[in-house]
TrEMBL record:
Source organism per UniProt: Streptomyces abikoensis
Keyword Isomerase appears in the UniProt entry: no
Protein name: AI-2E family transporter
Organism ancestry: Bacteria, Bacillati, Actinomycetota, Actinomycetes, Kitasatosporales
InterPro entries on file: AI-2E-like (IPR002549)
Keywords (A to Z) from UniProt: Cell membrane, Membrane, Transmembrane, Transmembrane helix, Transport
Keyword Lyase: no
Pfam family, one: AI-2E_transport
Length: 461
């Protein structure tokens, strides 16, 4: 019992020291700037942890048995120091809060879909601007571009002959000269034959046209359409008036015809020179063009070039074969139906076949009109049947078999390409539009496969 006052005195002094430390900690906390409550669950993301003063250890009560000295001891010892408690974990500093009225980042405020649309939009605008500038440049030098493209198409047609002669041991220069001369001689003879046939049959054709118009009037009067003589005369008067008002335009067109002839001759000469040098120095010209490409993209372009040339060669050769078959069979049909000028019409069908879809319609309509005004309605209907039958065989049998998958282009792309080419450069633009689309399709497909590190299909010889 004599030791109980000492134990109580030690406990009281410990409680006093604990109260003093709590008061000191409270004063320290009040001295800090107000920054929100402190969480004990963990640090706030984005905030740096700040050390907090370690609290004073809390004394724990000591049992009587533990506080009693061993037996035989003398005077009771004084109350010893209270053992220290375990330190408290360091608390992080409170997260910094945004000042009232602060605006968020503008980039983060824009929705993701709007950002993607904006990124795609400005790239499309750049491509459209580049295409517009390119079309303006092409329009400014349209004659040169068309002549070079025509030379490229003729080269694609004649180059296999040059390669065949070189394999037979003929020198490159001689093989190029023989192929060049024979090719242009054949094309010149075809053109001369068409002009000769038209001029020889022009007088007879005019008489047959007048007779056909008379027969057409008689047929319309007796037809179930109930056409009267007054309506026919009204149509004839309107046609005469239209021709009379267009006299000035026809005269001005005749005056401009000299300039057109000069441009045509210039284009023919440019196409001939382009064909000659492409046949002779085509591989070296291609190697020189590859040096203009950046080195990082040179390998891909070097692989796309031969495939583009194979596509162009397949297109030209296939189109020539298909056009020749169309001209022969439609010409035979015109011959058996006794349509005048069947040979020039067959040549026109061959030439217009180089304009996909549109050319077949125009040449077939021309044959039907000639049959209508020179023969009769039944003959024109039979010509229409022959033309449609040959075109159906061409579209479903000849083109898939001859052209194959190398130059397969969707019909919508063909129509749009022909329309855009004709609006840009007339008939020449319509002729070169489809092979340009076919080559572009091949190049884009190869470069896409090359970018994915895939092995593109080999070029078929």
């Amino acid at each position: 019992m004599s030791r109980l006052p000492q134990w109580l005195g030690g406990l009281g002094s410990g409680l006093v020291r604990l109260g003093e430390r709590l008061e000191a900690r409270k004063a320290t906390a009040e001295a800090r700037p107000a920054a929100g409550p402190t969480s004990v669950t963990g640090p706030t993301p984005g905030a740096a942890p700040t050390s907090v003063a370690t609290p004073t250890p809390v004394p724990t009560p000591v049992s009587a048995s533990a506080a009693a000295p061993p037996s035989g001891a003398g005077a009771a010892p004084a109350a010893g120091p209270v053992p220290a408690a375990e330190p408290v974990a360091t608390l992080p500093a409170p997260a910094a809060q945004a000042a009232p009225g602060a605006r968020p980042d503008p980039v983060a405020a824009v929705p993701w879909g709007v950002r993607v649309a904006a990124e795609v939009g400005w790239r499309l605008l750049v491509l459209a601007g580049t295409l517009w500038v390119l079309m303006r440049v092409i329009s400014a030098v349209r004659l040169v571009v068309l002549a070079f493209v025509a030379g490229l198409l003729i080269t694609a047609l004649l180059q296999p002959t040059v390669a065949l002669l070189k394999r037979r041991g003929v020198p490159r220069g001689l093989a190029t000269a023989l192929t060049f001369l024979s090719g242009f001689v054949v094309m010149g003879l075809v053109g001369w034959f068409v002009v000769w046939q038209v001029t020889e049959n022009l007088d007879d054709l005019s008489k047959q046209v007048q007779h056909g118009i008379t027969e057409l009037k008689r047929w319309l009067l007796n037809s179930p359409f109930h056409v009267t003589q007054g309506q026919i005369n009204n149509i004839a008067d309107k046609l005469s008036e239209a021709i009379g008002t267009s006299t000035k335009d026809i005269t001005s067109a005749g005056i401009e015809g000299v300039q057109v002839i000069i441009e045509v001759l210039t284009g023919i000469l440019l196409a001939m020179f382009s064909t000659l040098f492409l046949l002779y120095d085509g591989p070296r010209i291609w190697q020189w063009l590859l040096k203009l490409v950046p080195e990082a993209a040179r390998e891909g372009v070097a692989g796309a070039g031969p495939r583009a040339w194979a596509t162009l060669t397949a297109y030209v050769r296939g189109t020539v074969i298909v056009a020749l078959i169309d001209a022969i069979f439609i010409g035979i049909g015109l011959y058996f139906l006794k349509v005048p000028m069947y040979v020039p019409l067959a040549v026109f069908i061959f030439l217009f076949a180089f304009i996909p879809l549109v050319g077949a319609v125009v040449s077939g309509a021309l044959a039907v009109v000639v049959a209508l005004v020179t023969r009769d309605v039944f003959t024109a209907a039979m010509v229409l049947v022959v033309v449609l039958a040959v075109q159906q065989i061409e579209g479903h049998v000849l083109q898939p078999f001859i052209l194959g998958r190398a130059v397969r282009v969707h019909p919508l792309a063909v129509v749009l390409a022909v329309a855009a080419g004709s609006m840009t450069a007339g008939i020449g633009g319509a002729v070169v539009a489809v092979p340009l689309v076919a080559v572009t399709n091949t190049v884009v497909g190869y470069l896409r496969a090359y970018a994915k590190e895939e092995t593109p299909p080999k070029v078929s010889s």
